[in-house]
Amino acid sequence: MDIPTELPANAGETQTYSACAITIAGCILVGITIVLRYLGRWCLKRRQDIGKGKGDIFGMDDVFNILAVMTFYGLCIAVFIAIDRGMGTHVEVVLFKRGSKGLSDYNQAIFVCAAFYNTTLGMIKLSVLSLYRRILRGVPSQTLRTVVWAVFAIVACNTLANVLSVLFQCWPITAAWDVLIPADEKRCIDVNAFYLGNAITGVTTDATVYLLSIPIVKPLQMDNKTKLQLLATMLIGGFAVVTSAVRLGFMPALLSDPDTTMAMAVPMDWSVAEPAVGILVSSMPAIRAIRYLWRDPALNSYGSGAGHSTLKSRTGGGHIQLYDIKGSDTTGMAKSTSDAESGRAGNNNDSEEHLVMGSYGMKGLGAINRTTELEVKYSSK
């Protein structure tokens, strides 16, 4: 490889600042997302502690989410190292300043970026599919559960294949980045074909995973407004599909450009933005639970005290007299409560809280529970 003896005329051109800014923004976005996600989980735990809900708060979707976050930050660290080693500047500048070894060091950083990128995307999709599985515990459709399991297996196998293809794209492995190894002493796959195929399968699986939310949310027993809100939240994943498609659009130019260090900057920006958006989207259903921070838990649970009490339905608007707790017949009180709920049978004030907490209907019935919030007011008479 020829080493330039002087800096090229365009040596001042750089994209390192924009690459740094986008990577830092991605780190901040994911950090805020994680804080909000697990604040939402804390809200659900707090409600569960006062008797508002039951079931598992954490699930496999949280496990895959944590893995996605860890590998995402690994990706960002590798991107910063790649920037330090020349990404965003012209390859002649890298060769002039650092020689062939400098270019090999740059390639090594890109190699690590590719491994973390493919792992992160896989973990995000598996997190979303795990959330679908939790929702489908209360839906009697065996077909939907089978479809989700099938897509889960496809995504898992695709992720494993992509990561292994990155790690073992050349033999010996160091040939993937070491430009000093002669061509007749190494064997490598067609890297151009791999990256194009990888990008295409990424777009396809992204679209499949997020479009699955439509047949999954549709049969849930909740009012239309809440159902549309939940569906819109999950379909925000379309942004992840868009970022993946944009990245795919840059791949042909990147693979044919001999100025690899400069050409890699823009696709790498999208490689950071895509998983950052994916982590945000996959966390949106959990983040919705933070709305309980602005609700007084006392209004959603039964209090205690002497005298008469008034049970007020938040949906029906009616008042039902409850007997003195100390001296009343508990059977009568239970009957009053039952009558109150039966009077509201036609009102769909369902809570998607159960979608996250894992309470999906009575055992064996395959139905979604409906919950109606009641407010108890006490007065002395």
Describe this structure in words.
It is found in: Membrane. Pfam families: Fung_rhodopsin. The protein is mostly helical and 381 residues long. The chain has one domain: Rhopdopsin 7-helix transmembrane proteins (Up-down Bundle), CATH 1.20.1070. The chain has twelve helices and five strands. The strands form two sheets. The protein has a three-stranded antiparallel beta sheet with strand order 4-3-5, covered by helices on one side. The protein has a two-stranded antiparallel sheet with strand order 1-2. Strand 3 and strand 4 form a beta hairpin. Helix 1 (16-49) packs parallel to helix 10 (265-287) and helix 8 runs antiparallel to helix 10. 33% of the residues are buried. The model is unreliable at 300-381 (pLDDT under 50).
